[in-house]
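Customer ticket, subject: "Can you confirm the structure for Diadenylate cyclase?"

Message body: Hello, I'm evaluating your service for our small team and ran a test protein. I'd like someone to confirm that this is what the system normally returns, since I don't have a reference to compare against.
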Amino acid sequence: MLIKSFSNISIWSILDILVVSYIFYKGYMLIKETRAEQLLKGIVLIIALIPISYLLKLDMLYFILNKTLTIGVLSVVIIFQPEIRRALEHLGRSAFDDHYLNNREDFNTIINEITIAVQNLAESKTGALIVMEQSTGLNELIGAGTVLDAKITSNLLENIFVVNTPLHDGATIIRNNRILASGCVLPLTSNNSINKKLGTRHRAAIGLSEVSDALVIIVSEETGVVSLAINGKITRGYDKDRLKLILTKVVENRNQKRVKTAGEKVRSWIKVKTER
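Agent reply: Thanks for trying us out. I re-ran your input and got the following:
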């Protein structure tokens, strides 16, 4: 019987199982170590208890669990709207990304200017918040700040964050080789497990990295410590060389993905033309 069952499985059935498994895996990775992960565990527990309560004829418990599950679906959408938005943005990244630096010389120059500015700001303990936009567009934040659209230089970045100047207290957003805007207000994270010693600047950096794929550089005005926030996580204690290495890897990885995507689009276009 078992052998007969396996013989009826087609290649499409196996493909179907693999695709569904991959979707569930990616879905879990998106909510891992977030509030949604704990909620998912609660939903699984309720689903497991429903048939048990039915078999044991626990009518009241069965009724309550059924209603809880029905209402819970709507509650999940409302309560975890930020996580759902992040998941959808994650799915829409890369394939539609049109922003990238044209050559190694361009991004080496940009990274050098940024790292020099960050080092000088850290040495003088000048607070700073620098956002490097990637695939997720940040136009809504840029529009709310002061638009500069200026060439990236270390001197300009340092001057922006001079204390008591109009733009020093917000974030500066960089897209490719341009400083697009300064004085931008970022969304604060609602993660309560973050170190209480981290101030508003760090919480804003983490908050933006939770809802986008931006890389955010933070310089503490109290200690001069340089930190990076990306994908909802923050790491601290960067020196100039380590920061330069991380930024180079991020930009190179993004450009490689963009070139690969462009190549795939060209190959697809050629194939369509040939078939016609």
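A couple of notes from the result: The radius of gyration is 24 Å. Residues 9-92 form one domain. Feel free to reply with more questions.
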